[in-house]
Amino acid sequence: MKRLQRRVRVEHGATAVEYALMVTMIAVVVAGSVRLFGAQVATLFGPVMAGF
């Protein structure tokens, strides 16, 4: 029974690491997209913001 509990604990730790990696990858993609398309989006919505 103790072996099973240890194994569950180890898998839980690996799952947390996997989630952290996924969140990091998503953050990198979002940051890259903002950097790449930020100026174009600002230009696109500039007239809309001028109306307010």
Q: What portion of residues is helical? A: over 70%
Radius of gyration: 21 Å
Secondary-structure class:
mainly alpha
Number of helices: 1
Succession of helices and strands: H
> What's the N-to-C terminus distance?
65 Å
Domains (count): 1
Strand content: under 5%
pLDDT under 50 segments (min length 5)? none
Assign an overall shape: rod-shaped
The whole-number mean of residue pLDDT values reads: 84
Total strands: the figure is 0
Structural write-up:
- This protein is mainly α and 52 residues long.
- It has one domain (1-52).
- 94% of the residues lie in helices and 0% in strands.
- The chain contains one helix and no strands.
- The chain is rod-shaped.
- The mean pLDDT is 84.
Topology:
Layout: H1 2-50
Give keywords.
mainly alpha, 94% helix
Concise overview:
With 52 residues, this protein is mainly alpha-helical. The chain has 1 helix and no strands.
